[in-house]
Write a structure and sequence with these properties.
This protein is of the alpha+beta class. It is 26% helix and 30% strand. A hairpin with a 2-residue loop joins β8 and β9 (142-148). The longest helix has 13 residues, at 53-65. Belongs to the peroxiredoxin family. Prx5 subfamily. Thiol-specific peroxidase that catalyzes the reduction of hydrogen peroxide and organic hydroperoxides to water and alcohols, respectively. Plays a role in cell protection against oxidative stress by detoxifying peroxides.
Length: 167
């Protein structure tokens, strides 16, 4: 499992882009790590799945609600990562009105989840291998804070906890 002080793995996430511009085409676009992390402070949180109850009702909305406060505390971008495809992450982002606040990044093949060791096996519940629920503060590609949940609980990876760690 990735530890505080370590660099995030070099892999590619996907982001559904709805408006063409700045070198991005409409549709799924690659977000190549560590390039996308270079020189930035990222509040990254992962959820077991888009449109699932805790993720949609509490986890993601907390980061949308506290987006400005996180930016005021020095965060350049907020990333939501899930083992879903870019189309689902894009639709979830539209449904939750995250535009301009949270980037919805797809780890469709669980490459990032496996490389970090932050997985949650929900086989038998119809969900297969997923990302564990966690939050992390990443500065210039290195993990500075890691808040890993026990199972699917939401007690330490919420926006309020990460915001408190920044202040």
């Amino acid at each position: 499992m990735i530890q505080v002080g370590e660099a995030l793995p070099a892999c590619t996430l996907m982001e559904y882009v709805e408006v063409e511009g700045n070198g991005c085409s409409i549709g799924p676009n690659p977000v190549v790590l560590p390039d996308a992390l270079r020189g930035k402070t990222i509040a990254l949180f992962a959820v077991p799945g888009a449109f699932t109850p805790t993720c949609s009702e509490k986890h993601l909305p907390g980061y949308v609600q506290h987006a400005q406060a996180l930016q005021d505390a020095g965060v350049d971008e907020i990333w939501c990562v899930a083992v879903n495809d870019a189309f689902v992450m894009g639709a979830w982002g539209r449904a939750e009105q995250v535009a301009g606040k949270v980037r919805m990044l797809a780890d469709g093949d669980a490459v990032f989840a496996k490389a970090t060791g932050l997985t949650l096996d929900l086989t038998g519940k119809g969900l297969g291998l997923r990302a564990a629920r966690y939050s992390m503060l990443v500065r210039d590609g290195k993990v500075e804070r890691l808040n890993l949940e026990n199972g699917a609980a939401l007690t330490v990876s919420d926006a309020e906890t990460l915001l408190g760690q920044l202040q």
